[in-house]
């Protein structure tokens, strides 16, 4: 059965950390929906990749989705700066309700705002691991970590493992 995966993103995302998992999800027969600040706008990655926003965060309902993808780059830090905390609240629905949640590189920063990392095992790019540990997570240095519904990965070098874990979660 096809599933619908939300992708939360804004400018300065790490291009391949959005495009590669998105492609893997779609090739596996699932749908992706890009969620950002404003519907029908465009966000631009660090290396120039342009992506159209399908749904605004103000209109997005997490219960409409079967999974959440959070690409890295500077996007997660920008999303955390949302004065209303909408992205963290959106992500919390997934972590709290055991809905598949996929975050790579700096993406796990958003998971800090869910307050649901205590006792969870995750990985991320080196410079956010301390923040994740301070949020109560057990942080390991592995290409991909699957802790129930939360799948995390470190860098673009790990995309093959990350994409496989995403598809496995969606197909299970």
UniProtKB/TrEMBL annotation:
DJ-1/PfpI domain mapped to chain residues? 3-169
What PROSITE patterns does the annotation carry? Answer: GATASE_TYPE_1, PEPTIDASE_C56_PFPI
InterPro entries, sorted: C56_PfpI-like (IPR006286), Class_I_gatase-like (IPR029062), DJ-1/PfpI (IPR002818)
Q: Which SUPFAM superfamilies does this chain map to?
A: Class I glutamine amidotransferase-like
Residues of the signal sequence? Answer: none
Write out the similarity annotation.
Answer: Belongs to the peptidase C56 family.
Q: What is this protein called?
A: DJ-1/PfpI domain-containing protein
Q: Which organism is it from?
A: Staphylococcus ureilyticus
